Amino acid sequence: MLSERQRMILGAIIDDYVRSAEPVGSRSISKRAGVSFSPATIRNEMADLEELGLLEQPHTSAGRIPSIKGYRYYVDHLITVDGASEHDIRKIRTFFAEKMNHWENVIGHAATILSQLTNYTSIVLGPEIFNTTLKHFQLVPINDASAVAIIVANTGHVEHRTITIPEGITMDDMSKIVNVLNDKLAGVPFFRVKAVLHSEIAKELARYVDHCEGVLAILEQAITDEHEPKVYLSGASNMLTQPEFKDVDKAKTILDMLEETQKLTQLIQAHPGGIQVRIGTENAVEAINQCSLITATYTHEGQSLGTIGILGPVRMEYGKVISLLDYLSRDIAKLMSRGFK
Amino acid sequence: MLSERQRMILGAIIDDYVRSAEPVGSRSISKRAGVSFSPATIRNEMADLEELGLLEQPHTSAGRIPSIKGYRYYVDHLITVDGASEHDIRKIRTFFAEKMNHWENVIGHAATILSQLTNYTSIVLGPEIFNTTLKHFQLVPINDASAVAIIVANTGHVEHRTITIPEGITMDDMSKIVNVLNDKLAGVPFFRVKAVLHSEIAKELARYVDHCEGVLAILEQAITDEHEPKVYLSGASNMLTQPEFKDVDKAKTILDMLEETQKLTQLIQAHPGGIQVRIGTENAVEAINQCSLITATYTHEGQSLGTIGILGPVRMEYGKVISLLDYLSRDIAKLMSRGFK
DNA sequence: CGTTAGCACTCGATGAATTTGAGTGCTAAC
DNA sequence: GTTAGCACTCAAATTCATCGAGTGCTAACG
User: Fold this and answer.
1) Is the dihedral of CA A315, A318, A319, A323 positive or negative?
2) Strand D at less than 7 A from CB of A59
3) Are A303 and A326 in contact (CB under 8 A)?
4) A167-183 per-position pLDDT tens digit
5) Closest-CA residue in chain B for A232?
6) What is the predicted pLDDT for the residue at B341?
């Protein structure tokens, strides 16, 4: 258990360090407004905090910097989250107002505004189509042998892929099949589509069309295959403004990682609901062991739709970022609801 | 007019410099296989080449590096383009073979493989839908007041956007309108859609439906609005491997620019057909005055569909990149034709 | 006359030695 | 428990000398 004074000092050190990126000395703490202890006293406390593993010293004659554990304590107990700043809220309002005619891309815009407001990197996971239902399914023939399969979700999201039509199946057969699928699948959540296809539809379909197994398999794949949620990334180059990444090699490790959408998805999907903070090595992915990742999920009618996140150096403005993510995740939810009507 | 020997020396210097990123001295040239002149002779020639503006000296006691003009001469007169290397071709084959089930995204894959093979940054412009024709148009109602408009092109590409349905128009009216549009617009190139809508369809439609002007305006916008070609970017972080960008600030200028899709499009669209090389300051965009951009367009049945490009440092392997882009642009064309069937 | 050996000269890069100063830990006094 | 005082530490900045790759120029050579 930390004393009140120790908590104050830890907080002050983190604040200072976040701002300056330089080790913080006892003198600069003691000179702060509202602090009435001499540097010597502060030094004693600092030594104690170091022993507790909350601070560390880059070298003997330098000030202290927070350890991962120190940040963790700060985030868990010390942080003040007093809501997004007026300024940020106004920025967000006008930004979305400008893009209102493209509201279907709220998520993409959210990524942009997040990185702009924070000067960190934002990673945003688009609405997870798995949590939504199938509204409409359709084939548009392109020529004799191929067609575009179009899948519309109840959220208005559209996926499409090109399929090849097997020999010996006519367009007529195809449209019969599609009609049946639409009848049976409309309103079914995507994650159940596969099951429904096998249990209810296969038999029924056999009545109408011969040799439909091959077609069905293709359509099934078209519908269920890889509804990978989209990942939006914005402000990756902001990483380069952080002094901790002035070394190009370190920066490259991170930027390389950010280019692998797959890894990104995996990274951000590992975060459950609510607001999550992963500090430094708490992140499973080694490339970002020098970074912190804060995420928030956004929901619609109780369903988690996706995640917005901020990746920055461990030396991050946790309070500000958490407030912002909290505000924006709610705001997105609102905007989307309005979109769904 | 350069003498044979001068051309040889210029070529040798550029080769060396591209490999090493260090100023090239007279000795290292004279020691090359097949060179039978002393360093002193080479030095004299070098001085002449410098006077011609083809070389420059970072400082008096350093070797020479090529100037923009020198690279230009190299690209225009000296370069040997002997086709993509066996190794690269094999890589491309297997890469595309793996992704065959997602051939509709050839372009995205092309960007990836390009950056992987070159270790530079690739910028690829997706098929320009303006050069294609409308195959199918459709509305899928989401709820009473909104619907998703889906536009399918003859290439199999799909665009979609959400629209709001004006008060007082029934779904029935809508589908009538959509039917007429499909009848009249199928096969029309996108760039003519607007004209056809106004000239042929407006009157005809008035017969079927009252108050259709508002709806028509919305649909027109849905169809013609912003078919911005997609830009794919890959290997942006490769920039960081180049010694010329070991300075984080320089790197950031470029990476910032690469995040603005709009600017990217503009940059790459400024390149007309065939293979284009823009060296250093020849690029209009200031942020990449330290870079060279090489582009190639890919076509289908004589129509230019899009552009693939490589952005790297001025000190770039021009021969290799040009061969590769040449090969890949043809390959993409082939793959897409097969896709269209 | 073109080519080359020789040589003095230039100047960034490298690295050792030195200085500086922010910050510490400890001790003793308040 | 707090603080003044002080010796000590060590990275960073500064200075200075050295090194060496590469040049330009001159004179000699075939």
Assistant:
1) positive
2) yes
3) no
4) 777 778 778 888 888 88
5) B259
6) 47
Within chain A, residue ranges assigned H as helices are: 4-20, 26-30, 39-51, 68-73, 86-98, 106-118, 171-185, 190-196, 202-208, 212-224, 248-259, 261-269, 318-340
From chain A, the residues in CB contact with B234 under 8 A are: 259
Q: Are residues A288 and A214 in the same domain?
A: no
Q: What is the residue whose two structure tokens read 């891309």?
A: A105
**In 10 A of CB A247, how many CB atoms?**
12
CA distance B194 to B208: 20
Neighbours of B243 (CB within 10 A): 12
Whether A58 and A181 share a structural domain: no
- Closest nucleotide relative to residue A64's CA, C1' based: C23
Same domain, A254 and A291: yes
In this complex, the nucleotide whose C1' atom is nearest to the CA atom of residue B30 is C4
pLDDT one-digit tens code per residue, B54-92: 999 999 999 999 999 999 999 999 999 999 999 999 999
Contacts of A77 (CB under 8 A, 6+ apart): A7
CATH number for A163? 3.30.390.10
Kindly report the length of chain A.
341
Amino acid at B188: V
Which pTM does this prediction carry?
0.85
Strand-strand pairing, B158-164 and B231-234: unpaired
Amino acid whose CA is nearest the C1' of C22: A62
What residues make up the domain containing B26? 4-78
Cα–Cα dist A253/A238, whole Å: 14
Q: Which stretches within B142-260 are classed as H helix?
A: 171-185, 190-196, 202-208, 212-224, 248-259
